[in-house]
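TL;DR need structure tokens for one chain.
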Amino acid sequence: MVAGGPTPGSTQITVPNITPTEPLPPTKEGKPAAAANTKPTGARIVVTKKTSALTVEDANGRVLFFAPVTTGSQHDPLPIGKWKITGVQQMPAFHYNPDLFWDAKPGDAKATIKPGPNNPVGIVWVDLSLEHYGLHGTPEPGSVGHTQSHGCVRLTNWDAARVAALVKPGTPVLFR
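>> reply
TL;DR here they are.
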């Protein structure tokens, strides 16, 4: 925007102030480069089904990060309980297994969808101690906040990247 306001005939737009979703090359330690110089500071993640929200909290319970999320569906509700992060994967491949999806069509075969921002799990997969469940991005940010996932916690790609930079394996995750 030009000082003094928009110029005549121009269109003013508003855009979110977000971190780019293009992943940076990992460091030697395997951490995303954006997080390489900062130690993860999240002591725990809390996902609240009632408010469709995720918070990353420090050791004193202070909220470091907040994001809207999708927390399952009527058929695949959020698995309430205490879990832990077992790993973080940048640019994951998606391994479709029709045996895990109630809405799979007869004859669907297992498939692997290559990594990328349009992959069903987006640009980040945060693996949980509960088999087949994780926190992940999505190529459809408009779907976040609705109860339509298969039980995982879905975030926008940019929010998933921020969460991944704040946590490490062993970080507790509470689904309530």
